[in-house]
Design brief:
binds magnesium ion, 17% strand, Rossmann fold, binds 5,10-Methenyltetrahydrofolate, methylenetetrahydrofolate dehydrogenase (NADP+) activity, 10 helices, Bifunctional protein FolD, multifunctional enzyme, 293 residues
């Protein structure tokens, strides 16, 4: 039996529809729609595409999108100054600094300049700490999207064994914490993990976020598992550029109950959750409760 393909694109589109309604209601109540500022340093082609897509999605959801571009030669102090100006600007609700930053800039320092109330990526020390503590804060978008997709297959995640392969700050670590908050039993696996195939086979929910094309093979997947493929790897195959995940999709779908495709799985959820965080940040900054979506 072939797995059900989790249609992240459709789920994200439905979520963005509801966010759009909330954004319009917000604009009516507060005189202006929520506003997201994206800071892009340098001219990495993939980043340009992502930022353009984010801007379009933001406007489609009835929010305002602002872009601040700096040359690749910008100093850390210059990038930090842009972030601080956005912090001070009362018309800005959300700030995202597009990763990766040029190597001469310390990403952690720059991210930490973001006002935690506007940190829609959930990456500042304050929001990471709030996630660890399980108190109100802004959660990272890709992990949040993963939990929504897992819940689209399983009503309750409680008691399920989740294996997260990859421990990045943007995805693996926060995803592990979010799944723990759902009462999953979480295994945090990574490049130094012994017996990785065996550990993956123990997963009811298998999350792959390592950035290695098709690392996870078909027989690493337990029959009936839910597979979330967070990898987005650009590879060249038969002379053509392709996008593949961290999971061998064709093989894994013969064993999984449900699996996310790449593209069209987790990626679109990241953007939808970014817009949701912008709405939440805009509401909380005005002292009202965020949307119940
Ligand atoms: N501060 C920061 N926050 C981020 O959240 C962040 C970042 N920096 N830097 C880059 C990564 C990557 N990322 C993606 C978002 C959407 C898709 C997405 O929508 N992908 C589509 C299309 C993929 C394509 O065709 O290229 C899909 O998977 O179907 C992918 C990747 C956010 N990131
Ligand atoms: Mg392999």
């Amino acid at each position: 039996m072939s797995a059900r393909i989790i249609d992240g694109k459709a789920i994200a589109s439905a979520l963005r529809e509801r966010i759009g309604e909330e954004a319009r209601a917000f604009a009516k109540a507060h005189g202006a729609p929520p506003c997201l500022a994206v800071v892009l340093v340098g001219d990495d082609p993939a980043s340009q595409v992502y930022v353009r897509n984010k801007g379009r999605a933001t406007r489609e959801s009835g929010m305002i999108s602002i872009e601040k571009r700096l040359p690749a030669s910008a100093s850390e102090a210059e990038v930090a100054a842009v972030v601080r100006a956005l912090n001070e600007d009362p018309s800005i609700d959300g700030i995202l600094v597009q990763m990766p930053l040029p190597v001469h800039i310390d990403a952690h320092s720059v991210i930490n300049e973001i006002d935690p109330a506007k940190d829609v990526d959930g990456l500042t020390e304050t929001n990471a700490g709030r996630l660890l503590l399980g108190v109100q804060g802004l959660r990272p978008c890709t992990p949040e999207g993963c939990v929504i997709l897992a819940k689209s297959v399983r009503d309750r995640l409680e008691g399920l064994r989740a294996v997260v392969v990859g421990r990045s700050i943007l995805v693996g670590k926060p995803l592990s914490l979010l799944l723990l908050a759902e009462n999953c039993t979480v295994v945090m696996a990574h490049s130094k993990t012994r017996d990785l195939p065996e550990i993956c086979r123990s997963a009811d929910i298998l999350c792959a976020a390592v950035g290695r094309p098709r690392l996870i093979e078909g027989d690493w997947v337990k029959k009936g598992a839910v597979v979330l493929d967070i990898g987005i790897n650009r590879v060249e195959e038969d002379g053509a550029a392709r996008l593949v995940g961290d999971v061998d999709f064709e093989a894994a779908k013969e064993r999984a109950e449900a699996i996310t495709p790449v593209p069209g799985g987790v990626g679109p959820m990241t953007i939808a959750c970014l817009l949701r965080n912008t709405l939440i940040a805009a509401a909380r900054r005005r002292g009202v409760r965020g949307p119940a979506i």
